[in-house]
Write a structure and sequence with these properties.
Layout lengths: L9 E7 L5 H12 L4 E4 L7 E8 L6 H5 L3 E9 L1 E3 L8 E4 L7 H9 L3 E5 L8 E2 L2 E2 H6 L9 E12 L4 E8 L5 H12 L3 E11 L2 E2 L4 E2 H6 L2 H7 L3 H4 L6
Parallel strand pairs: 1-14, 3-12
Antiparallel strand pairs: 1-3, 2-3, 4-11, 4-12, 5-6, 7-10, 8-9, 10-11, 12-13
């Protein structure tokens, strides 16, 4: 009897391109690796780029642990414009004049979001209420009551000051909607705001500098990809796998 080839197993770090859902990346890798047992740890919105942790084979068992790790982002916020999705992919809902802010004033406003807090998830999200994803209700123009979720913002700093757009660096816990932080900051300033760009640079010890693009992965052979896999036991040493 012929022996079945051993299934590939491990963690692959991918640099997700813009306009791809996390599921799109998984689907492309399933085709490349010719296997179905592939998942991801920590969803990125289509407009966001950067680090997506892909779990291959039996490594899908550590999904819950890796999803719970802290995240780091870089991005751009645009003041004065409010969208229905709270980011650049949404429809413009409102424009307001931006006050003549100084960098110290903006820094002080951002400082108010540091620490432990409860955040209300946006309507355009995959969270399910009574089995229905919120974004489906949002597309019908329905507003559904959402339970605020506990998050922590450890660091949020301006890396390039400008008006109406400025760049930032952020470190936060899992489940934090960065676009909601941008929206809420705009409300606090009285001019509105939305997330113009976002890139996940790190998840705990994993950095996007270690990641491969989809194009790079497509150019590799299966043995070459296997060499790039991180063993689940190295990623989650405290767990018995």
């Amino acid at each position: 009897m012929l022996q079945q080839p051993k299934e590939m197993e491990g963690i692959l770090l991918v640099d997700k391109p813009r306009d791809h859902t996390s599921h799109d990346v998984v689907a492309r890798l399933r085709g490349k690796l010719k296997m179905k047992r592939i998942g991801h740890a920590g969803t990125l919105d289509p407009m966001a780029t950067g680090l997506l942790i892909i779990l291959v084979g039996k490594a899908t068992r550590v999904s819950q642990y890796l999803t719970s790790l802290d995240k780091e982002y870089e991005g751009t916020i645009e003041l004065g414009k409010v969208t229905d999705t709270q980011d650049a992919d949404g429809e413009m809902m409102e424009t307001r004049p931006v006050p003549p802010l100084t960098e110290p004033e903006l820094t002080e406003a951002i400082r108010g979001f540091l620490g432990d807090q409860y955040q209300t998830p946006p309507m355009y999200s995959a969270i399910k209420i009574d089995g229905v994803p919120l974004y489906k209700s949002a597309r019908k123009g329905e507003e559904v009551e959402r339970e605020p979720r506990f998050i922590r913002v450890m660091n949020w700093e301006i890396t390039r000051f400008g008006v109406p757009q400025f760049d930032f660096r952020l470190r936060c816990t899992k489940g934090t909607y960065v676009r909601t932080l941008a929206h809420d900051l705009g409300q606090k300033l009285g001019c509105g705001a939305h997330l113009a760009a976002l890139r996940r640079t790190a998840t705990d010890k994993f950095n996007v500098s270690q990641a491969l693009t989809i194009e790079q992965i497509q150019a590799l052979t299966l043995p070459e990809i296997e060499k790039r896999l991180i063993a689940a036991r190295d990623a989650v040493p405290s767990l018995a796998l």
